[in-house]
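Entry type: protein chain
Record version: 2
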Amino acid sequence: MKFPVPLNATIMTNFNFKLLIAACSVCTVASNVSAQQAKSDSVVFFTRSQVDSAARSTHTPEKPGRLLAASNEKESYLVVVRVKPGDVEAHEQFDDVAIIRSGHGILRSGFVLKGAKQTGKPGAQEWLGGEITDKRDRKVGAGDFIVIPAMLAHQYIPDAGDSLVYFTIKQRHPKK
């Protein structure tokens, strides 16, 4: 299966990270405030110790993610601990925004996916498993900022003997 959207994953190192976060924060806040006024103090906030506790909580290679919270629109905020390669995945409806917290590994991505299992209904489908046959590998490490657009197949692979800990925010992809 070949995905039709010609997009690439973006990885930023610490050098541009602070500038990008500031710009994204300003754009997001301005967009959200102009769209509707907040009805309450709905800030999603976790202290470092709460995040550390979630990352240390019982996880298995089969269930490496811990849900920290979800928005009213069902967008998830996760902390993930990978000790072995994750399954290949692609999402029709969500962009993945990730920040590597610790560890090193590879982000594999591509548009041609072989042997994946398709789930969901049109408009909200996902593909899991299989193999990316037109793969592009990128080294990732602590502090890297990654945006994986909807419909781009991807897989995180920690370095041997290392764990890869990262935050992922599932951002609903705008419908066209």
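Comment: Residues 10-24+46-172 form a domain with the Jelly Rolls fold (CATH 2.60.120.10).
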